[in-house]
């Protein structure tokens, strides 16, 4: 089958060769476990049931999950096994199933979710993505995905090309986000009665869109442009998560502007700007969060 799931549209026969995502058609994953470092309404107290898939369609030069994005970690699993993993995470009291970097496996993931739901999967499904998605692919996820958790990295074509080799990133991600919001036009959360029945804390998101922006060092102007676009376009119908956890990895040593953390001053200016615009539905990170503890061990945990 020729693969054009992502905006790269590489047309590779992934049953015979790797696509631009560096992966074959078979599902590969590197970790499936409770994850505590998402937004509070995703992780809650019990954790998000995060499945980290191997490969990536974007592969930014500063990638925080480089080992799996580059296809260097992961083990092969089939649809039935993936469905079992979903159900096991639910048994562990995960608040949701969190599909991390799933684009290259959308079709088998859909099949696995359907199998798991037929066997009792009831918790929400979260689609955790770079934001670089085809609208046609996202339409297949309607009725499958409950919460979209996309990145929105840049508005500036120069940065998108330089750091993600995707000069069309802004236009593609704008269209993708519009489709996500069409599917989930308003945020929804657990109420007290539902929370008690499901055994989870109050305030877990069960439907909606949270847009993440990972602030990069020196890009305050573009960060402001991202926040402005999101708020002016969607207002309070989405949540905006402004992240300061960027960690310079060893492979950016030769990219001086990226080889440092975001300063407190830069981040505070971004947050103040969002508040000044009127952003209410948002998440911020407090000082000291930019460290490698946000990057989990991709040891195959939970894939047995």
Automatic annotation (TrEMBL):
PANTHER family: FORMATE LYASE ACTIVATING ENZYME, PUTATIVE (AFU_ORTHOLOGUE AFUA_2G15630)-RELATED
Designated name of the protein: Radical SAM protein
Organism superkingdom: Bacteria
Coiled-coil positions: none
Entries under InterPro entries matching the protein: Aldolase_TIM, MJ0674-like, Pyrv-formate_lyase-activ_prd, rSAM, rSAM_sf
Organism per entry: Lachnospira intestinalis
Keywords on record: Iron, Iron-sulfur, Metal-binding, S-adenosyl-L-methionine
Gene3D superfamilies: Aldolase class I
Span of domain Radical SAM core: 52-178
């Amino acid at each position: 089958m020729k693969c054009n799931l992502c905006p790269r549209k590489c047309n590779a026969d992934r049953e015979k060769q790797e696509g631009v995502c560096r992966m074959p058609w078979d599902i590969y994953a590197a970790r499936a476990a409770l994850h505590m470092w998402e937004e509070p309404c995703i992780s809650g107290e019990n954790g998000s049931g995060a499945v980290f898939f191997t490969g990536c369609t974007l592969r930014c030069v500063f990638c925080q999950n480089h080992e799996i994005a580059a296809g260097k970690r992961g083990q092969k699993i089939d649809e039935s096994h993936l469905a079992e993993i979903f159900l096991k995470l639910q048994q562990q009291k995960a608040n949701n199933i969190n599909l991390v970097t799933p684009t290259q496996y959308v079709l088998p993931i859909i099949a696995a979710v359907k199998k798991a739901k037929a066997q009792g999967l009831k918790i929400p499904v979260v689609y955790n993505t770079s934001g670089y998605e085809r609208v046609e692919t996202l339409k297949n996820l309607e009725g499958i995905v409950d919460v979209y958790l996309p990145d929105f990295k840049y508005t500036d074509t120069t940065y998108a090309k330089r750091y993600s080799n995707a000069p069309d990133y802004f236009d593609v991600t704008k269209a993708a986000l519009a489709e996500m919001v069409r599917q989930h036009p308003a945020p929804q959360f657990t109420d007290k009665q539902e929370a008690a029945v499901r055994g989870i804390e109050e305030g877990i998101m069960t439907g909606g869109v949270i847009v993440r922006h990972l602030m990069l060092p020196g890009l305050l102007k573009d960060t402001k442009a991202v926040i402005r676009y999101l708020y002016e376009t969607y207002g309070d119908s989405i949540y905006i998560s402004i992240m300061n956890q960027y960690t310079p990895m060893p492979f950016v040593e030769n990219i001086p502007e990226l080889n440092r953390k975001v300063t407190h001053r830069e981040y505070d200016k971004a947050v103040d700007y969002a508040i000044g615009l009127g952003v209410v539905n948002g998440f911020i990170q407090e000082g000291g969060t930019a460290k490698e503890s946000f990057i989990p061990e991709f040891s195959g945990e939970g894939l047995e």
